[in-house]
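pipeline: protein-struct stage 2 | run 1193 | Cyclic nucleotide-binding domain-containing protein
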Amino acid sequence: MERFDFNFAPYDFLNAHERAKLQNTVDIGYYDDETVIIEADEPVAFLYVVIKGLVREVTLDGEILSLYDAKDTFESRALVEGQTPHRFIVQEQALLYTIPKETITELMESNPRFGAYFYASLADKLSNIAQTQDAQQFESLFAAKIRDAYRQNATWLNGSDSILQAAQTMKANKTKSILVRHDNQIGLFTESAFRDIVIAGADNQEPIHRWSQFNLISIDIEDYVFHALLRMTQFKIQRVVVTENGHPIGALEQIDVLAYFSNHTHLVAQRLDRAQNIDELVDIANQMTRSIQILNSNGMRAPQLAELMQVLNTSLFEKAWRLLAPPKLYDNACLIVMGSEGRGEQILKTDQDNALILKDDVDEALAKTACGAFSETLSRLGFPPCQGGIMVNNPAWRQPISQFKTTLHTWCVNPTGDSLMNLAIFVDAKAVAGDESLLDEAKAQIKRSLTDDVGMLGQFAQAVELFDHQNSGFFAQLLNRNSSSQMDIKKMGVFPVVHGIRALSLQAQLSETNTFERISRLSQANVLDAQLAKDLSQALAYLMDVRLKAGLHAQAIASPLSNNHNQVDMSALTTLERDLLKEALHVVKRFKAMIRQHFHLGNL
């Protein structure tokens, strides 16, 4: 009997005794094309694991719900519930492990983690595997290099320069240490030296070499960050000198290391605060992209990364707008971002979605010039122009508040396709610069215009079905081995959740824009069932994780799809990732059914 492969989830959760129990009872079955392995509504006696071949899961009317490839498991829920409403049919000659129900039941009872993988909700399942992920994330921290944490902002002085010059330089450069050249040596003058200087009553014109340390502890830029921490601990120091090819290039502070391991993005925020021109912002924007890669590799999940990037992007946009807009325009307008950027759910840079709300007496010519420069600047920062023209350089998205309110009212009472799309974009708006009361006034207009308009809200919600034809046909498409295995995860998963929640939030007149916060509020208001809300949040978080991974991979290989972060290669997913993706899509399907019922979409 061939040994069972325990090297994938959830079988790698089993201990040695449990593995032996499974190995002693597992069998292997061969199934020819079109063989019905599990019939709908009949008792299920085995759990099946695909060794090779392909099995499709279909409804009684023939809709393909899922496909099972090598290392995929089915039908675990049927073992718990006794039967399944679906049929499992061999698509391509299949070799399967067959594990008796009694064995699986015993293993579920003895190993809760193993059992949770099969019959827990998606939320509980993701929580259950978090322990393993945390261990992997902890290990990844020790792979970080000095180059990743080091800030290239070294400040140099000569040993003959005065203490006063050193103090002025440190204040101007916002640094706690200065590298010192003196008598063919390299030394370090730090802020702690001032304590000794004050105690000694030294004159502020004394040369700094007298108060500098020349017996330096150094580390190469290609060494590991944890080695730097070890040296700081060993020598009871707060910084080490960083060298490259044997030459000192700067200092790595203890706070830099701690910031890198906790959330090194605050270093980016500091640079944004000090930036003086657009060229500096371009460099910072590139650093932000590198930060995403580092934080993701260290285990930070997509929703948390999205929150961080919203904060940083807001600062980036505000700084760019402040550099470009005259004070008279800045103070009398509100710059807003919309769509995923407004919701705080965007990580990698995508098309610009922004607008400018003006006070009624602002000079339009002044606004036009500044907005044109802003749109061009965002392109330089890595945010490509919106193909639909939803940008401040478009007069339709740059209006005085009175005109904006009229436009918003028109969108609400005349729900054409374009109006509904524009409204969906705008309700996620977030202010990033200027007078935020203008955005508050605009959103108040939406609430007035939508009062008790059930029909309009139904039309608004109907967009959740926009890509249903792609969803239902995707697994059928995969059966064609010559077809692409690319899934548009935004259309199939993210968009239905985001828009369905947006419709419910609009109806409930919530002020939140973030989808996770909206889900929480809707659950508290009993608009959403608590379990569905929990599953929905976890499903969306996982879909965002998969989307981010695909986007980072596309960027790394300079793929033609690198500007489309929504395309996920199903064949590149691990067994665990594919299984969780199927679970997430089933949650999305449940939610869409709830939206159809809530808004009576079948009657529209």
